[in-house]
Amino acid sequence: MYDAVIEPPEVSILILGDADVGKSTFISRLSLGISPPAHADDLPPYALPTLRDYDQPFTFNVSLYNRPYTLCFYDTASPTSYTLLQPDFIILCYDISKRASLESVRTRWLPIVNKHFNYDEALPVMVLGLKRDLRREWTAAEKGADGKGRGECVMPQEGLGLASAGLCDRYAECSAITGELCKEVLEDVARTGAKTTTENGAKSSGMDCTVM
Fold first, then answer.
1. What is the rounded average pLDDT of the residues 95-99?
2. What is the CATH number of the domain that holds 163?
3. Distance (Å, whole) CA 150 – CA 142
4. In a domain, 146, yes or no
5. Cα Rg, the chain, nearest whole Å
6. Average of pLDDT values for 136-157?
7. What pLDDT sits at residue 67?
8. How confident is the model at residue 128 (pLDDT cuts 50, 70, 90)?
């Protein structure tokens, strides 16, 4: 008699955001796993894998809490319309170097989440700032004479403020190109995904933030 093979729980994760904010590069970084090659602590000269939209979902196997999980990632280029999916976890992405992409999270992507994915009040949502390596301090001209102006780059407190105002569960930043904070973000994504399979779910009681 053979023991039954127990398949690892599958967690579907939907990544939303404007075109060119870095979603594909971020998913490509995920394919290296939580523990990338030994030389990954040196900022990459190594190339990230190329992923093809029609291969979605992109699936990655991880082990957390002494058990395996399968994370299935979809984005807006999925062959299946993303509005027809029922994800377990949603990540809203913006480009830290382009202020308009953060505004788009507020005016476009959060309303889409509230309209199409309101089937589950426990659905966790993360706001993720990408291309952290491109952030630049605001110049004096951008700040203006009264010091109240803002530059093109988004500062951490602004992204965190939007996530909090949108009642999201998590806020994080990273650079998929340089690897900065990627390990921490990937671990947070994996932990959140794994928690969605538990009785208590992954909805947090307060904002969790991964920014240093």
1. 97
2. 3.40.50.300
3. 6
4. yes
5. 18
6. 89
7. 85
8. very high
Mean predicted lDDT score pLDDT of the chain: 85
Phi/psi zone of residue 130: left (φ > 0), alpha (ψ -120 to 50 degrees), beta? beta
Type of residue at 59: T
More confident residue, 127 or 61: 127
Query: What is the domain count for the chain?
Result: 1
3: in domain: no
pLDDT band at 47 (very low <50, low <70, confident <90, very high): low
β-bridge pairing 170-173 and 208-210: parallel
Grouping H, G, I as helix, E, B as strand and the rest as coil, residue 125 is strand
What does the pLDDT read at residue 114? 92
Inside any domain, residue 2: no
Cβ–Cβ < 8 Å for 175, 131: yes
Please say whether the beta carbons of 174 and 128 come within 8 A.
yes
Which residue range is the domain that position 58 belongs to?
10-210
Instruction: Return d(Cα 185, Cα 180) in angstroms, integer.
Output: 10
Task: Evaluate whether residue 1 is within a structural domain.
Answer: no
Decide if 56 contacts 76 (C-beta within 8 A): no
Name the token pair of 112. 């889409």
DSSP states of 137-168 as a string?
PPPHHHH-TTS----SSPPHHHHHHHHHHTT-
The pTM score is 0.86
Measured on CA atoms in the order 68, 74, 75, 77, is the torsion positive or negative? positive
| All residues at 6 or more sequence positions from 24 whose CB lies less than 8 Å from its CB, including other chains | 51, 75, 77
